[in-house]
Amino acid sequence: MMLMSRMLLDTHDPYRPAVIDWPELDEETRNRIVSLPIWDIAVATEGRAGMNVKTYAEYIDEPLLKTAVEMDAYEEMRHKVVLHDMVQSYGIELQPEPEYKRPKDPEFAFMRTGYSECIDSFFGFGLFKIARDSGFFPPELVDTFEPVMREEGRHILFFVNWVAWWRSNMPAWRRPWFEAKVIAVWLYLIWERIDTAAGLGKDNTRAQENNFTLNGSKELGVEITFTELAKICLSENDRRLEPYDKRLIRPRFVPAAIRLALDVSDRIEKADLPGKVEALRKCDLAGKACKLWKSLPFGKGHAKGAFA
Asked: Matching InterPro entries, A to Z (predicted)?
């Protein structure tokens, strides 16, 4: 517990959104930024995350852990301020923000925020690199957002280690209820993304914004295959988490699922039509599924790790 808490506290960047000097953009670049369908949902997501994490911190008794979670909440709310200041600077119109209500179950809300960030940050790291390398974001804007991207990496690293620590240290009678919450969170997140991908949301604009994680490269004007995007996301995920203490466990489920998808896709693509069934058989799907299970948030793999 000390290791993960000290990691979050000792690597805090004390930048202040109010003093950020937003770079001037030419009209073409500004229009590209304004056209992205993400700003409403991005501001609302950070506002909701800040409320969820802040509320959970109020229920923590251990002083060091409480301070770390409070820092997490502060940084989430600071992300919202950064985004809000940016859209104001570039004249991006936002819908009225929703009311950020205190969650009825603070632990569940904290877990939903944490696991959601594990998914969104994985793809966000890759899309940020694509936006940088393609020139969609000018270098000055990339530099401005880099601290936010670093913080997202720290947050998911802290969260997965909190899950492992809390699972190992909670009273035995609480364990079944906790695991039920983990499963409920993942079912909720999977359904949310299926609903988004299918465009089944009642508000189609909102669904389109949520769908940016799935189709972000197209919004950035870059033609890229799923395989190429997945490899970029895997590489960036590893790069952004590499600097931190090796004793801290890393998020495993999303990278493992993507690697499995890449392996299956690669074998099928290389096989001729009659050999596709044989290629699937040789993928050892059962063995890979077993490894994926161990990487699940409630699998044995996530209960391991060093935390002091």
From this structure: Ferritin-like_SF
273-302: average pLDDT: 52
Both tokens of 122, joined, read: 């994985």
Are the C-beta atoms of residues 124 and 156 closer than 8 Å to each other?
Answer: no
Give me the CATH code for the 2-303 domain, please. 1.10.620
Tokens of residue 251, six digits: 């998020």
CA triple 102-104-106, angle to 5 deg: 80
Q: Is the predicted pLDDT of residue 173 greater than 70, yes or no?
A: yes
The token pair that represents 150 in the structure block? 């670093």
Residue whose token pair is 């189609």: 204
- 157, two tokens: 């690293």
Q: Residues for the chain: how many in total? A: 308
Q: Model confidence over 110-150: pLDDT tens digits?
A: 999 999 999 999 999 999 999 999 888 899 999 999 999 99
Q: Which residue has the higher pLDDT, 219 or 38?
A: 38
C-alpha dihedral sign at 281, 283, 284, 286: negative
Inter-CA distances, 27 with 130, 133, 139, 282, 291, Å: 21, 20, 16, 53, 49
Structure tokens at 254: 């999303």
Report the helix count and the strand count for the chain, using DSSP H and E: 13, 0
- The one-character DSSP state at 171 is -
pTM of the model: 0.84
Chain mean pLDDT for the chain: 84
Give the span between the Cα atoms of 237 and 261, in whole angstroms.
Answer: 17
Indicate the domain borders of the chain. 2-303
